[in-house]
TrEMBL record, chain A:
Component of the adaptor protein complex 4 (AP-4). Adaptor protein complexes are vesicle coat components involved both in vesicle formation and cargo selection. They control the vesicular transport of proteins in different trafficking pathways. AP-4 forms a non clathrin-associated coat on vesicles departing the trans-Golgi network (TGN) and may be involved in the targeting of proteins from the trans-Golgi network (TGN) to the endosomal-lysosomal system. SUPFAM superfamilies: SNARE-like. This is AP complex subunit sigma. It comes from the Eukaryota. Adaptor protein complex 4 (AP-4) is a heterotetramer composed of two large adaptins (epsilon-type subunit AP4E1 and beta-type subunit AP4B1), a medium adaptin (mu-type subunit AP4M1) and a small adaptin (sigma-type AP4S1). It is a peripheral membrane protein. InterPro entries: AP_complex_ssu, AP_mu_sigma_su, Longin-like_dom_sf. The lineage of its organism: Eukaryota, Metazoa, Chordata, Craniata, Vertebrata. It comes from Grallaria varia. It is found in: Endomembrane system.
UniProtKB/TrEMBL annotation, chain B:
Residues 704-819 form the GAE domain. The gene is Ap1g1. The lineage of its organism: Eukaryota, Metazoa, Chordata, Craniata, Vertebrata. It is found in: Cytoplasm, Perinuclear region; Cytoplasmic vesicle, Clathrin-coated vesicle membrane; Golgi apparatus; Membrane, Coated pit. It comes from the Eukaryota. SUPFAM superfamilies: ARM repeat (SSF48371), Clathrin adaptor appendage domain (SSF49348). This is AP-1 complex subunit gamma-1. Subunit of clathrin-associated adaptor protein complex 1 that plays a role in protein sorting in the late-Golgi/trans-Golgi network (TGN) and/or endosomes. The AP complexes mediate both the recruitment of clathrin to membranes and the recognition of sorting signals within the cytosolic tails of transmembrane cargo molecules.
Amino acid sequence: MIKFFLMVNKQGQTRLSRYYEHVEINKRTILEAEVIKNCLSRSKDQCSFIEYKDFKLVYRQYAALFVVVGIDQTENEMAVYELIHNFVEVLDKYFSRVSELDVSFSVSEIHL
Amino acid sequence: MPAPIRLRELIRTIRTARTQAEEREMIQKECAAIRSSFREEDNTYRCRNVAKLLYMHMLGYPAHFGQLECLKLIASQKFTDKRIGYLGAMLLLDERQDVHLLMTNCIKNDLNHSTQYVQGLALCTLGCMGSSEMCRDLAGEVEKLLKTSNSYLRKKAALCAVHVIRKVPELMEMFLPATKNLLNEKNHGVLHTSVVLLTEMCERSPDMLAHFRKVRQLSSSQLVPQLVRILKNLIMSGYSPEHDVSGISDPFLQVRILRLLRILGRNDDDSSEAMNDILAQVATNTETSKNVGNAILYETVLTIMDIKSESGLRVLAINILGRFLLNNDKNIRYVALTSLLKTVQTDHNAVQRHRSTIVDCLKDLDVSIKRRAMELSFALVNGNNVRGMMKELLYFLDSCEPEFKADCASGIFLAAEKYAPSKRWHIDTIMRVLTTAGSYVRDDAVPNLIQLITNSVEMHAYTVQRLYKAILGDYSQQPLVQVASWCIGEYGDLLVSGQCEEEEPIQVTEDEVLDILESVLISNMSASVTRGYALTAIMKLSTRFTCTVNRIKKVVSIYGSSIDVELQQRAVEYNALFKKYDHMRPALLERMPVMEKVTTNGPTEIVQTNGETEPAVLETKPPPSGLQPASQANDLLDLLGGNDPVIPTAPSSKPASAGGELLDLLGDLNLTGSPVSAPAPQITQPPFLLDGLTSQPLFNDVAAGIPSITAYNKNGLKIDFTFERSNTNPSVTVITIQASNSTELDMTDFVFQAAVPKTFQLQLLSPSSSVIPAFNSGTITQVIKVLNPQKQQLRMRIKLTYNHKGSAMQDLAEVNNFPPQSWQ
């Protein structure tokens, strides 16, 4: 089950956040900061799946933006990895050559 | 008031903020503006304000005052309002707020709206944050929508149904008839969501699972063949631009179907058989050059492993995993290692074939892969490959990150224990671990190691030599120093005499050994526990070494005033040993007997029960309501005084029960003159010791038949005394009391207390229980020890308290009818 879906840039600013489980609002910022820290410290030839607390993070980097999805143990990691890519491709088609600015300005559309 | 700024303006302004404080300021200002605008009930700009609020919420600022506004937006007729309203509801509200119930009516109306998009919005929101009450109310509507022909709505309704089932499992049957037709759709969206719905149903309820597996005679609507058919179409069909992802058509759907097949096929032969072909087909036809193909293969492998597939298929699956391992892409290797870990239990041999690749993965740079490879390597160690694997693992231990070292060390210990080809190799391995990762070794490893060393009798000299050499250079790693000091203490004489067959003998003098131990004591790096070990070791050496006893005495007396309480206590006791009980010292400090390892009781607490710490152990036992404080060290020594010294008992596993404590006490009393190995057979059954108490005589040489007496018999409670005395220790009488209850109700919270005249000393041990069952169906047993050095007539006053028939009873009595043999 997907727990959350985040798009965070390298400076740690959240561009998109969707939580599918209830998380307190103050914990969310902490979570996002920690997650981005984990992802930033990985080098390019390291695996895209990180084990964090009791779930896994699947992340993918597109230019300066990180898409991170938190999943639990029953989910197929590779399928989620593909899902991330598919999602970015959809955004690309919708905005015709999407960039980070598009994502930050069209919050409501992307959220739905 | 001027029109509130648009969302884009807000975002632009926030982006210009250069510091966190500036950003916060801007947001506060905007929040205030929004709040005043809400108060004015301004309809036109409400949606804009809420959108801004949502953005701020995403950045992490509190936005709960917008919840009611969301509701108002949902109720409005404009689509843009509704859209923002529903989005806000999904993000800001959840079941914890009471406000969400107000939405139910709105959603109900919107579910029946003419525009499908509005219906879709409502379904989304319900599926996202519907509480169980809302779900119950609206489930009927959702079910209706599940049957419409509009595929856009159908797929959303299916997902909403998933959420409803998760919240209210009882409603599952309601959706069952609708699912029959779901798989006949062409639209992939609907197919996908219906597969999700079916998966959820099957996972939640085994009845549903059975229902779906059942073969139905007439219709061709059995689930498994349907799924197989769909999957086949997906693979076989040519390029379809709608669903293509890098050359494979709709991989997401394929993966979902595979997962559902896995659930259906688990533990079920018929379904598994139906799936075999298609699984083989998928496994062979899928392209592996892209990640997508690999994702599908991964899911296929998982499915094959879980269902009852034929062996050919399983071999195929493991080969696929082996191919994954050789792939350059880290993700794939990680995934392969994870699934191999899952399958290693069942298909051990097949996985062994890939052992070398797995061991190579230990050297990978990536943390997740290393961890997986380490776990898998431990699972693969067996009798044949243990030497080679250990070498690799030890090398890994040297070079890995600190977070791994503890796990790796424990794993190596376990594996070495199970598969060690020879004792020497085992000890070598342990030494290697201690020297490389000494500070990361877990605490329970130290007693286990000590126990292991004592067990390998012929290796003592070799072990102690190697340990001595190890700490000569470096005594900062605590577990290593602890084990080493214990060994030196025990086998110091072997070390000094320099005989060792396996290695060249080294010349060590007693002074050098004492030097090392003293430096451990003094060093700042030593933990308090380690210091305790070192001090005890020095003490033990006083009997093993011949010429340096004075030095030892000096060291011990220095620590008598140490700040550390533990050290001080030990030093004071050892001093006492030197001064008052010097005659007992050799026997107290004799070599420890071989310890039995009780593997079932978890980590065995091996208390350092050399003779001299026995008194310390006894002191800590809670006195079970004896009128005299139970056993002070000196009392007990007096009790034993004059006869053979206490021979140290082997420590048994100590479940914190009275049985264990009793064992120690009786164990040492029991061994009057008997050889050291006698306690071993008794230790294995501590729970039965109390039976042993009543049925067997406690002493080997019991004085012939002292008659037992009934000490008390009133109100249905009868207390019998049975006596035992030893010929070798005539001033001690051991009385076993047995309390029985002949009434028809149990007596609970039974407490027995006793007092004796001043010339006697009394020790009361823990009773077997505090409930006396009725009708004489059971008894409480308790042991009393009376010391009667002046051989006066035994008299005793007893006090009984218990609960009977709901009321608390108490009684005092005097026992005078002790038989003369019990005290003369």
